Amino acid sequence: MNALQTYRYLQPSALHEGDLALQTSGGPSANPRFFTGFLTAPRTAAAGLLAVAEVARTRYHQPVNPASLDPVVTGSRDRLRFESFSGCCGVYARLDVSPAGFDGDVVEHGTTNVDVNAPLREALARVGGLDPLHLSVGPDDLTVSTLDGPVVEKKVPLPARWLRGFAEVHVLAAEMALRADVPATDAAAFLRRLPASGDRSVLWAVPAGRSLRLTSRPAPGGVCLAGPGRLAALRGMLRFARSLRVYGPALTAGSSPTASVWELDTGGMRLSLTLSPEPYRGFSGEGGVLASLASDDVADDAALVSALLSWDPTIDVPTLAAQAGVPWERVQAALVQLGTAGRVGYDVAEDAYFHRVLPYDAGRAERDNPRLAGARALVEAGAVGWDGEVATVQHGTEVYRVRRRAEGGYTCSCLWWSRHRGERGPCRHALAASMVEAAA
Description:
Helices cover 27% and strands 28% of the residues. It is α+β, with helices and mostly antiparallel strands. Among the domains are: 290-365, Arc Repressor Mutant, subunit A (Orthogonal Bundle); 369-439, no CATH class. The strands form 6 sheets. It has an 8-stranded antiparallel sheet with strand order 8-4-5-6-18-17-16-12, sandwiched between helices. It has a 5-stranded antiparallel sheet with strand order 7-3-9-10-11, covered by helices on one side. The protein has a 4-stranded antiparallel sheet with strand order 21-22-23-24. Strand 10 and strand 11 form a beta hairpin. Helix 3 (160-173) packs antiparallel against helix 9 (328-339) and helix 8 (317-324) packs across helix 9 (328-339). The N and C termini lie far apart (65 Å). This is SWIM zinc finger. InterPro entries: Znf_SWIM. Keywords: Metal-binding, Zinc, Zinc-finger. GO terms for molecular function: zinc ion binding. Residues 400-438 form the SWIM-type domain.
């Protein structure tokens, strides 16, 4: 492939009194690069990048031809991150490269969204054991250089659905904990036993000795495995892994399907897949962010927290709360608000938030969540009235009853709640009732 590259120089090179002033296209101010350097395990890195790209080009629910191939690349202090969502938005993939995984400097901090076309996938697939793999990441492109030469992928628009997915995934991940740590050999045997890629069943994985066993029912200490064939993207990197770690929320015998994280750790890199609670469900519609976004203070808090975010590898919530002068619960709600613009993610391995550079738009939360906008409209119209433990909500010609639950949250007499039973976030009537109750 012949790639056209354009270089810009601050001024012409010149010879002054015997000293050569040679201009280059580098420099953080004129032509910033987030990262320039080699990956220390080229075959491992190539397999991880191919896995992230493979998820981006796959639609696991109702498969169609590949349409989106746009991983997000972030340089952040001492690491690189590559992220993508599947075409159905039900699988979130991330490759984390730590300092042990690269030989170079993250000289600037930033995020870009690039297209991964066939030439780059072919170049990565040809990386051999001793072949070098060099990356150069900037705000407008990603350049991958192998023995076959450089391949330049340009910046493309970020899908709006991915922003909604980023917000939902980090809220779900923050509720998870490590449930199993399986050695690589046992992990390989477990993954080989999984049903084919087209299987849409919802199974449950329970620790059993050094490995995992599958059951048809939830059990304490286990994790949900919805659409087990969706883990196929892990197989290419499995031969380089030291272990498979599995994360999920706490389960009981009667738990409904939940999201889960499956992470391969190679030492210098971690490849993780986050699976939605059911194969047909995309993260962008889960509604887990709505309760946090309902506060009147959240937009102002988010603007304040956004100004305080640094490029530390992890975001320290108590420190942010002290700096902002607000309770940590409001800081967490602000991080959810920032997550609606893709500014914040969550790393289950480090049990901490991390920072991306994407433009923060305070109005995006309302535009991307019609239930939230509908709830605010009900509150502004004075349609909510509380009487003890029950609220009545006038919505058009219908009147709905919202009840406070002893374990937290609300029930509603509307069709949405009866259909989802609170598993996909609150309905607009429950949101409106919570807003009025909080204001009172």
